[in-house]
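Trying the structure run again after the queue cleared.
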Amino acid sequence: MQTHIVPVGFDYDRMIAPLIRDQFDVDRVILLEGTVGSEANVEYSRNIARKLEQDFQNLLGAETVREQLDDVYDYDAAFERAFDLINAELDRDDGADDAEVTPDGDAPADEREVWVNLCSMPRPVSFAFATAAHSIMVERQADRDRIHTYYTAPEKYLETELAEELRATRDLLRDLDEGTDEAVTDASVDPDRVADRLASTTDLLAEFDERGTTIGAKKIGDSHVIELPVASFQNVKPFEELVLFTLGEHGEFESVSELAETLAAELNEEYTDSFRSKVIYNVDRLGPGGKGYIEREEHGKSHRTSLSRTGQLWVRAHADEDRDYRDLA
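Done. Tokens:
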């Protein structure tokens, strides 16, 4: 059984054609629609999603749901959404508990697989979903064969064909503009309208030839750059989890000792040298020389301690999980 998670951009064929042609057994599809951008872009993407919803249901018989992704440029939010979606689909109850286990002890043959399509949507979403999938593979070693990310190359790109058609239109408009008044009258075309369309078409083609399919660099938040961290989660022990969540809650500690005091208070434990050493050991394991979830900046005789970008993603992705740390000290 397969769930396909499909972030929807401006593509149609690459979202569904490979699944039909390669005869995938798709029983559930989650279509994610972006809601940021010009009104025309959002509406175009929404129309693509509507058509995909109908065709996934009619052509593949798949249960199809449409959900919104509020900000396609918010990498962290997209990562969290991907992490939650993939885990939820892996854990989706399809009656697999009652399925017959193979003689060699493998999981039931109808156990759900999750496929993530990376063809469309802006790059932050694609990278976030790919990285989240890989992180889950590391955390859930037994399920790594059930998680797939995939890409499909287009047979052709329409941008260049659209440009060629635009060139032909420009040439036609130029002929009309340079023709006699009688020719324009015969064509029932306003000469001023022909001149305006010729000018705008010529300008657009000049921009396409000079810059390609996009123009400029959009500022998102305070920067024109969206950092895409290389995050591949590792297994984290319960006490390490507590350290990470505490840093996530407080943001930063001026020293490891201050962090240790806070942890001791939360666990109702006496703050001793032994407990402090335990915290230092775990912070080292989570630091730059270990799992990379914690950053330590030298500050006088102490080290200012905070979460790295990957650590922030880990905390955000695991924030809703229930835990009991009373027996960790």
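The first strand starts at residue 2 and ends at 8. Worth checking whether this holds up in the mutant runs.
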